[in-house]
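Q: what does this look like with magnesium ion bound?
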Amino acid sequence: MIEVKKIEKYYAGKKALDEINFTVNEGEILGFLGPNGAGKSTTMNIITGYIAPTKGTVLIDGFDIIREPKKAKSRIGYLPEQPPLYMDMTVKGYLNFMYDLKKVRLNKQQHINEICEKVGILDVYNRTIKKLSKGYKQRIGIAQALIGYPPVIILDEPTVGLDPKQIISVRNLIKSLSKNHTVIFSSHILSEVQAVCSRILVINKGRIVADNPAELLSGTSHMSDKIVAQVDGDTQKVQEIIKEVQGVIEINDISHKGDNIYEYIITFEKGFDIRRGMFKALAQNDMPIIKFDIMEPSLEDVFIELTSRQDNVINGECNETAEDLQGSQEESLNDKEVLNDDNADESLENTAENTSVQRSDSNDSDI
Ligand code: ADP
Ligand code: MG
């Protein structure tokens, strides 16, 4: 359905994409995962014909996006990073305008109504776009991408800036789209692509780092080096006991959870299984474990692991120079700020996911 062949992109002489190659089959829901600056938007802008690649070709249903743009573009609905909205228009005016622009030949009112219902914007249909929340604006952006029901839907970070409840509704919407569409959506949140996609493509620094790595789909806990545990017992003693367990490096971030229960974050040697050792040591001292979880590694850790593995495969060894390492460390520091924000988002999401069943959709108050 989508063939991306040897795409390269330079911005003012600086390489942003380096030989991007992949195909997406009909009905696939592809998650394009990568940190900020990885090249996700550039790739999507090229696939959709917004910008031209420096080298390489893109075929949509066999049609070259540069040579046969009308045919290729008519098969794509695109939500760019910044939704292309006319702020002074009403939702109704805008979607009718987009319908006419795309020269769709369906029953106009029925079609627009159906899409508004699908993305949950019927209640603001007659309102001016600029007065609506980010959540609604994003969904209006998704609605315009759906107009004409093109077979390919491409969404660039559709959940950025949304609150946890809106994130869940957009994710469910994306999942439901895959019944009738081939979908590519980008994200820098690992748990999001894991939750939504049938396939994950990992991009970093303008290169595809991994295509559907099994370890991302099956969970990343084996890449972790941290456990979060709540233990009932004198905190000094608990720490002394855990520190003695084979494989444990350190124990910190201690917080009081009530009575004699404290929560600990325990760092261990990667690849070492400390669970049995911890259980035995604490049980011997009559200190019950109340909660025990392996912490998911950060996206940054996952990238480092995947990237180094790919370097090893391609080059036979890791051939990063000191300069490269310096650069990547600086970047990873910059990324870390972003990723930390994301972690905050994710913990909110998780809370929302856990509680969403108790919430009512009818009091959607994000106008
Ligand atoms: P992502 O969407 O994954 O965050 P982008 O595709 O936006 O990444 O950016 C990839 C790289 O290209 C970054 O280094 C970015 O700074 C650079 N870049 C993106 N757009 C432009 C542009 N219009 N001009 C110059 N550099 C750009
Ligand atoms: Mg982007």
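The chain has twelve helices and 14 strands. The longest strand covers residues 14-24.
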